[in-house]
Structure formats: structure tokens, C-alpha cells
Amino acid sequence: MIDLSGRRAIVTGAASGIGRATAELFAELGAAVVLADVDTDRGEQAAKELGATFVLCDVSRREDCARLVAAAVELHGGVDVLFNNAGIIRRSTVCEITDEDWDLVMAVNVRSIMVLSGLVIPLMAAQGGGSIVNTGSGWGIKGGARAASYCASKGAVVNLTRAMAIDHGPDNIRVNCVCPGDTATGMLAEEARQLGESVAAFYTDAADRPLGRIGQPLDIARTVAFLASDAAAFVSGAVIAVDGAGTA
């Protein structure tokens, strides 16, 4: 049921983790994929392995986002799927975080979705529709300790998704949000380092959920591919937790 043949997709944060797994799955399902990331080495390697295209893009910069969308249009003639996945985390309370880190988290995790979607939606509307998937988090649904900026940003992503689905549904543009739980990515390991904890112990604690394990990037990628495909033709404004019942 999940077929992306002929679809033209942009994936941000695509050099590793969930973005990399999703770009790979999109390519396997027949999509033409443009990978975007700030990590040139891994981004170019991923693109080479997938037969895709890599564009260096700092999603916190509007000019980079505009260049990314322009490249996708030049390469493939349009955009059918936008996966707003790039994200960062700063583990701290509101008493500890600096203004600079707060602003950076918001710029990467939230403002980038506004900017990229604002650039892509007119293209999708002109061609008759499209699908946007935003990466939220279990911490966009409920709170977590020492993650104030991240929780705030992902809560914003969740409700921004709903607002976009309402605004752009009349143009046949579906907008959904996937909310991963703890997933085996570089970001999860970075959280452990920021908190001064052992990565192995951090992963063990993160697996304390009903399904008894942390997520794998492919777990999330499969849900994103479903939302991007015609199998989800009547799914819009949805916020889907992919977290082993962690938020349940």
C-alpha cells in the first residue's frame, strides 16, 4: 500500500538518524529525494549511497532554506513531500539555559518548519496537493526534566502541525506530526553527554517503557513513509506517537 513512486521529497536532518533512515526508505519506495543537513561529509555519503542529492542547509537560516527548495525544484520540478525533521536538543532548565541556546533550539526545531513549509506550500498548492510531515517528540505531548527549551519547541511543533493542516487542507495539502520516543540516534547519545551520564546507562533507562526497548530510526521512518503516501490520504492534522507506549 505504501508507494512513493514519482514523488519528489525533501528530508531535513537527513545525514544521520531518523532523517537518514527515512531518506533511505523514501528512495526504496521510489521517491526522488533531496537530503538536507549541516553535516556535509555524512550528507554527501548518504546521498551517494542512495542515489539522491545532498544540499548543505542550516535550517535556522532562511536563505539556506530558500536555496534548498530552489535546488529541489531545479532538480525535480517540484516538491510532493516535505519531511521537516532537523532538530537539536539542549538539556537544561529555564534557569540554566542561555538566551542564545533557547533561540537556537527554537530556530532549528520550530522556525525552520514555518520557513520551509511557507516556501513549499505554494508549490504544492499549484500542483494540486502534497504531504508535509513534521518531527515532534513524546516531549511535545508531555513534559520532561531538564529539557525546557526542547519541550517548548516540540509542543509548538505539535500545535503548529494542527494549525497548518487546517489552513492548507483546502489545497489538498496534508500536514501531520510524528512524535518519536527515545530513539537510537546521535541525538540520544548527545543527551547523555549533556547530562554527564553514561550513554549505555542512559539507553537502558530509556528502554523502560511497555515495549521494553528504545526505538530504531527505521521504526520512525516507516510511519513517516505511511504519512507521506496515498495510504494516508485521509490523515491530516494527526499527531502520532511512535514510542513503544512511552507516552501512554
Give the helices and strands, then pairings.
Layout: E1 8-12, H1 17-28, E2 32-37, H2 40-50, E3 53-56, H3 62-76, E4 81-84, H4 99-127, E5 130-135, H5 148-168, E6 173-180, H6 186-194, H7 199-206, H8 217-228, E7 239-242
Parallel strand pairs: 1-2, 1-4, 2-3, 4-5, 5-6, 6-7
Helix pairs in contact: 1-8, 3-4, 4-5
Notes on the structure:
The structure is a single chain. The chain is of the alpha/beta class and 248 residues long. The protein has one domain: Rossmann fold. The protein is 47% helix and 15% strand. Strands 3-2-1-4-5-6-7 form a 7-stranded parallel beta sheet, sandwiched between helices. The chain is globular. The two termini are 28 Å apart. The model has no long low-confidence stretch (mean pLDDT 97).
Structural class: alpha/beta
Low-confidence stretches: none
CATH architecture: 3-Layer(aba) Sandwich
Radius of gyration: 17 Å
Amount of helix: 40-55%
The share of residues in extended strands comes to 5-15%
Element pattern in H and E: EHEHEHEHEHEHHHE
Features of the shown structure:
7 strands, 248 residues, alpha/beta, Rossmann fold, 8 helices, seven-stranded parallel sheet, globular
Give a brief description.
The chain is α/β, with parallel strands linked by helices and 248 residues long. It contains eight helices and seven strands.
